[in-house]
Amino acid sequence: MLNFQSKHASFEQRNQLIADRLPHAGSWILDVGSNTGFTTQFLGNLGHYALGVEKMEKEYATACGIAGQTSAFMHIGVSPAFFANSPEWSAILLLSVLHRIYAFDGEACMRDVLRQCGQKTAMLFVEGSTRHARYRDQGQPPPSFADQDVDAATAWHEELFREVLGDDWAVQSKHVLAHTKKEPQRILFHLTKTSRALDPLRLRPGDVIELDPARVGFLQFPEFHKLHRTTPASLGQAPPGDWDVVLDKDCFWGARYEGGRGQDIGMISLSNYHFLTALKQRFHEGKAWEDTAWLAWMRETAPSRYNTEQKIQKRLRFIEGLYDDCVSGRYRFSGDDLPLVNVGRLDRIAIEDGRHRICVAKAAGVARIAVKVNALHPDHRFAL
Ligand SMILES: C[S@@+](CC[C@H](N)C(=O)[O-])C[C@H]1O[C@@H](n2cnc3c(N)ncnc32)[C@H](O)[C@@H]1O
User: Fold this and answer.
1) Which of 144, 177, 265, 281 has the fewest CB atoms within 10 Å, i.e. the most exposed one?
2) Which SUPFAM superfamilies does the protein's record reference (predicted)?
3) Under 8 Å CB-to-CB from 171, ≥6 apart: which residues?
4) pLDDT in tens, 108-138
């Protein structure tokens, strides 16, 4: 590989532009093609957690020499396989590296790497080259913009982002940076997923997210859509006060039949929710429904869904069918009628609506379910 001039003219400016746009303090950053590690280390020194990946042995070794407490390096050439099971990152940096992947591995591979990055973060920084030689020096055809034409190279990159990342992504800013004598200018693009453009990794009411149902640990009590009878739950209205505190309480059904109105508002741990206990007894321990405290309560209290024996049997068959579908992978959480969750402090996630589906998915060990975010506590720290 040709030598890369490790500090270009506006290197400090570029690193600062990136640092100023990271989504939060303590961001987790993947720096692809980290070379001797200066950008990785710069961000690590600012208190971020930065991992540089570099395919060249010598550059990687140099980088290891400057690794700090929160910056580290990996000696690997990234490929689509590298990203397949990677965690999600606060930001991914592709600084002057896409054109080298183009040069060495071809345009299709470069596009694939960019696509994969788009699936593992909501924020990308791409520094693009304007000089044909950097794309062609290993025998690949030149890109379709005029050599060294900054406007044309910008348009080419933007077209690439549109095609590969899709409409979900937007260029937030572009900077033309002074580079070297041979290539006077390169372009730095800052891209974010548009739905989160202002605050990329933070949830908003109405977001549909996928999560492991094991992360849902509470039941909202009372459910907000029962409190605000005229307000659709999907509007995300939360009552004032500490609605995400954990109540020392158990329940069989929820507010409607257990005196929810006028009581303390909060979250009940699902370990105190008798419906989930009954599911575990039935499906994990093989108990009869008749032997669960939950069904005994249902028979005694007779909420509308269970107020005749026929309705009870129908409902139990429904739950058994749902469980089988979840276990066999036939059940999909999709469509307009997704379960709703509220997100409180300390990652407390409570069921707002869809308790049967979420609890059955938990009992069946489903890996991921789609849910819609209803209310968010202003101090929540839940990140996707
Ligand atoms: C032009 S340098 C850019 C360095 C740094 N990102 C910057 O802009 O300051 C490109 C670096 O990417 C590395 N590289 C190229 N293809 C790579 C790949 N598939 N995986 C990891 N590193 C790669 C090269 O070895 C080189 O160190």
Assistant:
1) 144
2) S-adenosyl-L-methionine-dependent methyltransferases
3) 158, 161, 189, 190, 191
4) 999 999 999 998 998 999 999 999 999 999 9
Q: How much distance in Å is there from the Cα of 202 to the middle of ligand 1?
A: 30
- Cα(96) to centroid of ligand 1, in Å? 7
**Chain segment 265-284, per-residue pLDDT in tens:** 899 999 999 999 999 999 99
With a cut of 70, say whether residue 18 has pLDDT above it. yes
Structural domains present in the chain: 11-196 (3.40.50.150), 208-376 (no CATH)
Map residue 314 onto helix, strand or coil.
helix
Record the tokens describing residue 265, joined without a space.
């508002």
Number of the ligand 1 atom closest to the C-alpha atom of 38? 9
Structural element, H or E, at residue 126: strand 123-128
pLDDT for the residue numbered 239: 67
- Of the candidate ranges 23-32, 253-262, 267-276, the one whose mean pLDDT is the lowest: 253-262
Distance CA 295, CA 282 (A): 11
Residues with a CB atom less than 6 Å from ligand 1: 1, 4, 32-35, 39, 53-56, 59, 77-78, 95-97, 100-101, 104, 127
Rounded distance from Cα 33 to ligand 1 centre (Å): 3
CA 309 / ligand 1 centre spacing (Å): 68
Residue holding tokens 């980290």? 34
Q: Are 31 and 70 in contact (CB under 8 A)?
A: no
* Atom 13 (ligand 1) nearest CA: 33
Tokens of 19: 């640092």
pLDDT above 90 covers a percentage of the chain that reads 65
pLDDT tens track for 163-197: 999 888 989 889 999 999 999 999 999 998 865 44
Q: What angle do CA 185, 188, 192 make, to 5 degrees?
A: 165
